[in-house]
Specification:
287 residues; two-stranded antiparallel sheet
């Protein structure tokens, strides 16, 4: 293709043209993605964890998605757990031979899986031995499994209960799955975690109402969210957040209905921490 003979601009245009095909590939797999999201949502509702498992770029996509869930949605750090071939060191540097061990995958899965969990294997090639080991261990423990692969009818697709096949085609640099394959995996992981969190009451309208205000930027965001949803001033929002010890949902109820902090927290607890249901409950009772 003469890629090395192209100008910088020509390479940029070509890469961008190829990248534009990725969302189309994801859309074609909606019928496979939807049941996985449904299973993830059910698993979380039933007290289970979501275990991502991959090697190389695929593993790093899982690590990225899992690590973003606690600050964004206020969930426990292990609700979305990412296992990567080679362990922590493989996040920052390539440990290519680590993916070749079925036994290592079995051991990692055994260490982290329980019968309530759901394993999502991430492997662009659909044949990574480490991931196959994890799937085999999950089956031994009767744990349901899904996969995100970028080819049809792969070994991993045939092993799991819920295959997702993202047919992105050849890469700009042949075999470099950090490109379109990695982008497609990231888009699907975004859908899985975000949609399941929305369905579990972590979002109200388009607001992150369980965001953890761990720095000034997020504290400012919390104030802004209270102002927008409760239609109050910045001063009133800050006061409600202080009263609720930065429990964002409680602060919204305090601001909307002039409740005490403990009363707001109780109503949230009675409604499984779902803000919309709590608001509807208060309105029904005329509180």
């Amino acid at each position: 293709m003469g890629l090395d003979q192209m100008s910088i601009k020509e390479i940029m245009v070509y890469m961008n043209k190829e990248d534009k095909t990725v969302p189309v590939s994801v859309e074609k797999a909606f019928h496979q993605i939807e049941p996985v999201i449904q299973k993830v949502t059910e698993t979380i509702n039933n007290g289970g964890k979501i275990i991502y498992m991959g090697a190389g770029t695929s593993g790093r996509m899982g690590v990225l998605d899992a690590s973003e869930c606690p600050p964004t949605f206020g969930v426990q750090p292990d609700l979305f757990t990412a296992l990567i071939a080679g362990g922590e060191n493989a996040i920052r540097q390539a440990i290519e031979n680590a993916e070749d061990s079925v036994e290592s995958g079995e051991q990692d899965a055994k260490q982290h899986l329980s019968s309530k969990d759901f394993l999502i294997a991430i492997a662009a090639s659909g044949q990574t031995p480490y991931v196959i080991g994890g799937i085999k261990q999950a089956k031994k423990q009767h744990v349901p499994t899904a996969c995100i692969v970028c080819k049809e009818n792969t070994k991993i697709s045939q092993l799991v209960d819920y295959p997702i096949e993202l047919l992105v085609g050849e890469e700009v640099i042949q075999g470099s799955t950090r490109l379109k394959a990695g982008t497609a995996q990231k888009l699907v992981l975004n859908m899985i975690s975000t949609t399941s969190m929305i369905k579990n009451g972590k979002v109200y309208d388009h607001y992150m109402v369980d965001v953890q205000a761990t720095n000034q930027k997020l504290r400012d965001r919390a104030v802004s969210i209270v102002c927008d949803i409760a239609n109050v001033t910045e001063h009133e929002a800050k006061k409600a957040l202080q009263e609720s010890e930065f429990n964002l949902k409680a602060a919204i109820l305090i601001s909307m209905f002039q409740l005490k902090s403990d009363e707001a927290c109780y109503i949230l607890q009675e409604n499984s921490s779902n803000l919309r249901e709590a608001i509807m409950d208060i309105q029904r009772e005329g509180k």
